[in-house]
Amino acid sequence: MECSWKTVLLLVCASLGVQYTAIRTLRDSLSAPCPGTYSCQGRRHRGKLSGPSYMWKLLCDDSWSSGELPRRHILLFATTRSGSSFTGQLLNQHPEVFYVFEPLYHVQQAFTNSSSRLRRTLDRRALLGAYRDLLLNLYTCDLHFMENYIHPEPQDHMTSSLFRRSSSHALCSPPVCQENLDGVSESPDESWCPKKCGALNFSLASMSCLSKGHVAIKTVRVPEVGDLRTLTEDPRLDLRIIHLVRDPRAILASRIMAFSDQFRAWKIWNATGRQPRYVDITQITSTCKDMTDSLTTALQKPAWLRGRYLLMRYEDLALNPKDKTEEMFRFVGLDMDERVLTWISRNTNRNTGSPSHWNYKYSTSRDSRATAESWRLRLSFDIVRTIQNLCNDTLSHLGYRPVHSAAQLRNLSQSLVEPRTFQPAL
Ligand SMILES: *[C@@H]1O[C@H](CO)[C@@H](O)[C@H](O)[C@H]1NC(C)=O
Ligand SMILES: *[C@@H]1O[C@H](CO)[C@@H](O)[C@H](O)[C@H]1NC(C)=O
Ligand SMILES: *[C@@H]1O[C@H](CO)[C@@H](O)[C@H](O)[C@H]1NC(C)=O
Ligand SMILES: *[C@@H]1O[C@H](CO)[C@@H](O)[C@H](O)[C@H]1NC(C)=O
Ligand SMILES: *[C@@H]1O[C@H](CO)[C@@H](O)[C@H](O)[C@H]1NC(C)=O
Question: Which pTM value belongs to this model?
Answer without folding.
Answer: 0.82
